[in-house]
Amino acid sequence: MTKAASAAEVAAPAAAPLLSVEGLDKVYATGQRALIGVHVVIDRPQVVAIIGSSGAGKSTFLRCINRLVEPTAGRILLNGQDLVTLDRRGLRAARRRIGMIFQEFNLVERLTVMQNVLSGRLGYVGLFASLRYRFPPEDIRAAFELLDRVGLDGYHNQRADALSGGQRQRVGIARALMQRPDLLLVDEPTASLDPKTSRQIMRLIRELATERATPALINLHDVALAKAFSDRIIGFKAGAVVFDGTPAELTDDVLTLIYGAEDWNLPSGETDPDGDAGAEPGTAAITRPANSIATKGDRPDLAAQP
């Protein structure tokens, strides 16, 4: 290797981060400041939990990334492309690369599971084909493989409105992954689910994100789930990032900074000496023993629907 070649390699610019959010602000028409100077960089595939009190700006942050909510100021760079500056056509193209999983599932109830999953490819087929739900054979094969992977093998012809909450969320996960996204946004995926199903869904999202080397940003209210299933935790308070670190660094002092004063070690349902209730559900669960977390082999109840 020549000295000139070595110098060129040294001078080569570093690759752009997968996601870089720079100085993100959001001010609503009412004057409410939902986000204040948010800076977040995702430079490798990882599962990132977004936590904070209700109204702290978590959902607004996620929805600004794919511009379901329009930012007031700042830049959002996905693989170096600023999403904030895109016109309508460019934004449609960019959204193909961003999968989103919603709290309320956002399935078309009258369509089958397979049709809902294949809707993740609607941005890649022509208008006529999309209206008739006609997809290439490779897309259909990929949909069957995903349904098997999320634990819904044999459910392809079930209508969405015949599924349980956990099964609907699994369809939503498969639909998002059908986009083959560069980034996965997940907005409170366990809010409507029971504790066991919540852990199963979080484990599934983590496993799939890891398998596909896809970074995932997950808005969560349950601190225990955030600590158990994420690589990194970002804490929001009043629209600003006040913590960005590993689950091990999320100490009681940090939780107090994010949520306010509370006895984080008091088991749920007990009272402190002053007669106040214990920590809110989810936050008190930090002290649960490790064996309370479902094992990797757990599967959802997929009993046939009536």
What does this structure look like?
The strands form 2 sheets. A 6-stranded mixed beta sheet has the order 6-7-8-3-9-10, with helices on both faces. It starts with a helix and ends in a 47-residue tail after the last helix. It is 31% helix and 19% strand. By secondary structure, the protein is an alpha/beta fold. The longest helix has 17 residues, at 195-211. It has 10 helices and 10 strands. 36% of the residues are buried. Helix 7 packs parallel to helix 8 (195-211).
Which short descriptors sum up this protein?
alpha/beta; 10 strands; 6-stranded mixed β-sheet; disordered C terminus; 306 residues; 31% helix; 4-stranded antiparallel β-sheet
Question: In oligomeric terms, what are we looking at?
Answer: single chain
Total helical segments: 10
Task: Give the SSE order as H and E letters.
Answer: HEEEHEEHEHHHHEHEHEEH
Profile the largest sheet: 6 strands, mixed
Strand order, sheet with most strands = 6-7-8-3-9-10
The total of beta strands comes to 10
Shape: globular
Radius of gyration: 21 Å
The end-to-end distance, rounded to whole angstroms, is 70 Å
Whole-number mean pLDDT: 82
Model regions low in confidence, pLDDT < 50 over at least 5 residues: 269-306
Q: Into which percent range does the helicity of residues fall?
A: 25-40%
